Amino acid sequence: MNGTAGSHLSKIRRLFFLLPLMVAIACVSVRVQSTDVKNIDLVEHALCGKSVAMLGESPVHGFGETLEFKVELVHRLVQECHYNALFIESGMYDFVHIEALSATGRDVTDAMISSAIGGLWSNEEVQPLVPFLEEKMKTGSFVLRGLDDQIGRDSYASRGMSSDLVRYLFGDERSRCLGILQKHMGWQYSDDAPYGPTDKAKIVGCLEEIRGKLSQPEVKQQREAEEDKAMIASLERNLARNFTEDDFTKNDQEVKWDNDRDRSMYLNFKEQFSQLPRGSKVIVWAATVHLAKTLTNVNGFKGTVPFGFYIEKDFGDRAYALGFSAYSGEYAFVHQPVRQLDIAPDASLEGLAFAHNSFNEIFLSKKELQRYSSVAARPLGNRFESMRWDKVVDGLVVFRKEHAPAWLSH
């Protein structure tokens, strides 16, 4: 290894041994998962004073060490740093429904929260988070919301939302739109009768009819009406992308689809953040490809405008994007076979980080990332790309060895 890389590693090692382990942390932490205390403390300290803490992960959503670290970090940020909201990269509809149930004193169960979080995080690593979130919601001072405009399988959105939305309609109009919406939300299409532009037009027509009713004076003052308008706006943005993905080879259509989705997530965030008390602090849980501050110069992401770009524009240095990567190990997408992660090359960021130490994980602050300049790394997936990573994230946790999540059976 060259002298410059060795100097970088020397500085990193001195950082871990010389920085006080509990800088500016007044409370005693509660251990939830088994992680390296020194690194989790450093990450907590970096995020504690922010307004928006964005916790990323690989878009494969199949790395167990990352998930365990994030679960413990959420506990710490809520209990010790007074974060009062968690927004997750799942359909926003179920969370609006849960919030409505909670506001009227009805029970919110672990099963409801698990269903809202969705199958991407249906594993043993994330399960300890569910009862914690339920307990915090019951206090009335913690908010759990979703960012995405997509419909989750076996969710409230796919089963019960249609009935709730059409309650503003009457007679044949209600029956017709209920059938149209239920067919789509439950994806009741077949090879003989597939989803097509005519179906989309009918759905959009029903949503427009419902929005018209929501604008009537006797309805629009109701709290439920505002929430239903937000859900309809999110559904319409989702529908607007339908059929555009049929040919991603034309006119950068795939990039546009991705950008429209990230923009939609931002609009959902903005709408729901505006409802929080002044001074609120929000944790955002999503893939790093969404939370990145910029992807402009990353190979394969030309033209991409991620969710994190809008957050940084709104919050500046009050927002923090945390990425994750690994030197080696295993991973597994939802209920897919376990796969080996290629060992990181010596000259990669991950290889340099573990060249001369025995740590299980390392936290690289923004200043540390800046010292590496442009170097190959894989915080955005399984492929190594060279980039000034301090431009993409504010900090990076790198594990020596990842493990595949233990997916729950259904």
Automatic annotation (TrEMBL):
GO terms for molecular function: hydrolase activity. Its EC number is 3.1.1.-. Keywords: Hydrolase. It comes from the Bacteria. The keyword Glycoprotein does not apply. InterPro entries: Emycin_Estase, Hydrolase/PRTase-associated. The keyword Flavoprotein does not apply. It is an enzyme of class 3 (hydrolase). This is Erythromycin esterase family protein.
